[in-house]
Structure formats: structure tokens, C-alpha cells
């Protein structure tokens, strides 16, 4: 793209009032990977924040944050899906998708649900192990409809830039709340339930058979690696240069949905503090990093309770009382504590962590 073209496109964006903060996608450059890596994943969030797998296939992928990126584009990281379990014989209803879900209250400027519904453009860099047709859809949670586009990989294991424009959906508005308003789905494999219809580009539909016509099977060999980076969804019909946000900005956006507090290489880092209410029941508190989407779930590993003079305490149950801004955990069935003494929840190894999950 010439410099004059770039300036013209940025000028058009400015006229629409969105020179910055124009990318609806969070972590599109795959900078943030709080989970580090997730092996053997079928469904759920993988290495890079805000991108998850959805599937009912027997296939599995190891997900990692990779340094394999398209040359000269300013990206340093990509999401790598390494097929660890292949699925070569697909049942009719099998599917595999890589997706990002976007909160409805962040999408109101699309004006879905009326005749003024706006077009938006998705751009991304992809490296697929399979040549041929790949399907991508934007699915609107309002009405359960989807808009399909196909892109063709011309050369396997080669970075390719894809740009797709979607018409606005005029029938039903996106709910103005913290639920998923739009879902971007990259299809990785599909059975005949999803491939048996006909492809019609840029058409909103609810017919499942039209969703993945001609889709290649990215999970047909454990030698297959699929990469993605530079994901941007923006208003308008032009794909403008990627909006590079700082790592700190992307991390803060990701932490609205998921926060993993870790010790690094240090032992005995303190996550939560409190006091012993009774010898068998305690509450601990901590501040979350910003406001999460909703009250989060809680999980931990390689951590323990410690107090003086009793030392390490054992517990048999936890009850999560956390809200969107404050972590509050009740530890029950305690043994060895003294009422009124302070207590802390800390790591007992260099890989200790606590996590708070408010993902869509």
C-alpha cells in the first residue's frame, strides 16, 4: 500500500470520528498471553488472551504464543495452533472454530437493527497448513444469524493478508450490555451439517448448511500448524493500517475478562490477606486490576494459607464471594488457626498463581 493511499484511508477514518480506538478486537496483535500456553485444547481459551477454540471434534490443538510473524508488518507475536490430535474422518455435525467474542455495549456504533446499519471490515494475517477454501463468519447474537465470507489460501505455510467487508444487519439490534454481541469465527474444519448448502458471500443467514461450504480440514494431520495475528475489525469498507496499541493498553483490556496473578520465579508472594474469623472459617481480600466484565470465578495452584503462630493451615473448601472490582474468598473447614490472627494466601512455589475469570 502506498503512503498516499494510507493517508487517504486514515483521512476517511478521521472524517468518521475514529482515528484511534477503531479496532473492536482486543489483543489482535497477540501481545498478551496470560495463560502462557494450553496443551491439548478442544474448547476454551488458549495461549493468547481473548481468542478461544470451540469444537465438538476429536481433534486437539496445543496453543502457544509464537514469534513467527509476517515480515515487515510491525508484529512481534502470533497465536499458534499446533494440531496435537488429528481428526481425519469427520462426522456430519463436527466443527472446529477459532473465535473472538465482542461485548454488545462496545458495538452500538454499528447501528444494527435498523436501515442505517453500518458496514465493517475485518483484516488479519494468517498462515495455514492447507491450501484452498477457508470460511470466516461474523455471527450476530441478536437473532442467531451469521454472515459468511470465504478466503482462499494460495500457498500453504505462508503468511497471507486477508481483508473482508461485511454488510450491517438491519433486522435485530445488538443488546447494549456486557454479553456477546458479535462473534468472529475462523472455521478450521466442518462436517456436512455445515458444508452441505451453498455459499453466498456477504449474506446474513440462519441456515447451518451454508456456514462452511468447501472448508478444508486444518486438523487432518499432527504436522499442521495454524497461525493468526494482526486481527482488526473496524467501521467502514476499507482496511486501514493496523492500530498498534501498547502492551499495557492491551493487557488492561484483556484483564476485564481474565486476570492471572503470578509469582514469576519468586516464592512466597502474597495474593490475598485477611484474618481468621473463627478457627474453621476465614475470609481473604484483594484488589482486582480494573473492573471485570462481571463477578469472576476463582482458581489457584501452588498456593497455601499461612499465619502466625500456627504456620501453614489446611482448608477443605473455598467459596468465591468476588465482585467485578474486589476479590473476596472464603476458606472453610480450616484446621490449625487462632481466631483474630492475620492470615495471608501466598505462593509456595515459583509457579504459584491465582486467576479470576469473567470471560464471555
Write structural notes for this entry:
The protein has helices spanning 3-15, 192-195, 247-254, and strands at 37-41, 44-45, 52-55, 60-66, 78-85, 95-103, 120-127, 132-140, 145-153, 160-166, 180-190, 204-205, 225-235, 258-262, 270-278, 281-287, 297-301, 303-307, 311-313, 317-320, 326-332, 342-347, 353-357. Mean pLDDT is 93; it is low at 13-17. It has 3 helices and 23 strands. A 7-stranded antiparallel sheet has the order 2-3-6-11-8-9-12. The radius of gyration is 23 Å and the shape is elongated. The longest helix is centred in the N-terminal third of the chain and has 13 residues, at 3-15. The chain folds into 2 domains: 3-250, Jelly Rolls, CATH 2.60.120.260; 259-357, Immunoglobulin-like (Sandwich), CATH 2.60.40. β18 (303-307) and β19 (311-313) form a beta hairpin.
